[in-house]
Amino acid sequence: MRAVLNLDLEVCTGDFLAIFGPNGAGKTTLLKMVAGLTQPTSGDIQFTSQDGHSGRERVGYVSHQSFLYNELTGIENLIFYGRLYGVGEVRERADAMLVKMGLRDARHRKVGEYSRGMKQRLTLARALLHEPDLLLLDEPYTGLDQHGSRLFTEVLQGLKEEGRTVLLITHNLGAGLELCSRVVIQNKGELVFQASRRQLDASEFERLYFQAVEGKKNLESRIQNSEV
Amino acid sequence: MNQVALTWILAEKDLKVAYRSPQAFLTTGFFALLILVIFNFAFDPGSQATREATPGILWVALLFPGIIQLNHSFQAEMEEGTLYGLILSPTDRGVLFFGKVLANWVFLVVVDLFVLVVFVIFYNFSFSVQMLWVVLIIVLASVGFAAVGTVFAAMLSSIRTREVLLPILLFPIIIPIILAAVNGTQEVLILEEAQFLHRWLQLLIAFDVIFLASGFLLFDYVVAE
Fold it and tell me: Cβ distance A109 to A73 under 8 Å?
């Protein structure tokens, strides 16, 4: 069984790419490969930053696990990760990120006491602390209530305005479309649809999404019937 | 930032987390205490046969509870995916290994020294200069135990039966350490002249180096998905 298959994708600097697809489509595996958590069995992943370097220090990753230590405070978590990434003036940088994420008042509280929304914002702060060239977001809206989702979307909107390169996996078609500049749909490991956001009509996208996903299934059943 | 500083940052993080959630420390310490108490009830502390068995009793009380800490060290990392956070960072995997080993070693030594104090009281030994040799043996044996244990705990961290598998896999590998530790302790506590103590210490140091080097080389493959 292959989680990702025949996938050829180019992401340009400043792209905000939304990746949609059903469960088991291979989206998370794709992001893990880009992050370096999983190695592809064939092919390669190439990316370069403005200074020509590439490596784990250039990537920020947010998944539905927070990667945060519940027994450490918010600022302790950020200082720890900042030191791992070689961030200069790490305490000041951590403070600035906490202010940006609206978590300054909670910085001395243990992360275990945070709400889900606060954790996700701190997770995003952790991922942005070292100013990555590429930000990977794997279903960051999971478990967030509407208020938390709105706050998170506002933060991501800010990143878009800053011109960050972002790959976002989400099941939230509306939030994804609102933010993205490009859309891809992945199904059964393969990219079945790609388009610029400008080419899409938001009201029609849900229908288009189901067509793209089901279109593959229908195509397969037609092939099987012809073989029989 | 240099590798030594990073190693300390990683270890400091683990020690801070352990200090703030002392469940593992309490469980480990209590288990060790229980072993000493049970053996104290089972054998007459005043008899010569019991005295000759005390090195083995001490190391049962030190090693088995240590498994709890080793399991806990990676279990905590799996809960919120923090192990992935460490793997994603540009930190060398070898530095991750040494940071974990350092933290586990400090934790084991702290617990072991507490166990040693209780052992000395229960089994009618004295807090003499001789005990410093036992402390040295504990410190050295804990290095190898922590090194191998860290590798296996990482390997088994995502497996549900890790608490069962860890001692099964770990103890055969650390037999040289157990052998050296028990015999070295016997030389100090039981025999009148500890003429072979230096040999057991050399064996401990040799296997510490082997296990640290092996763990450093293998850790990259162990934590790769």
Answer: yes
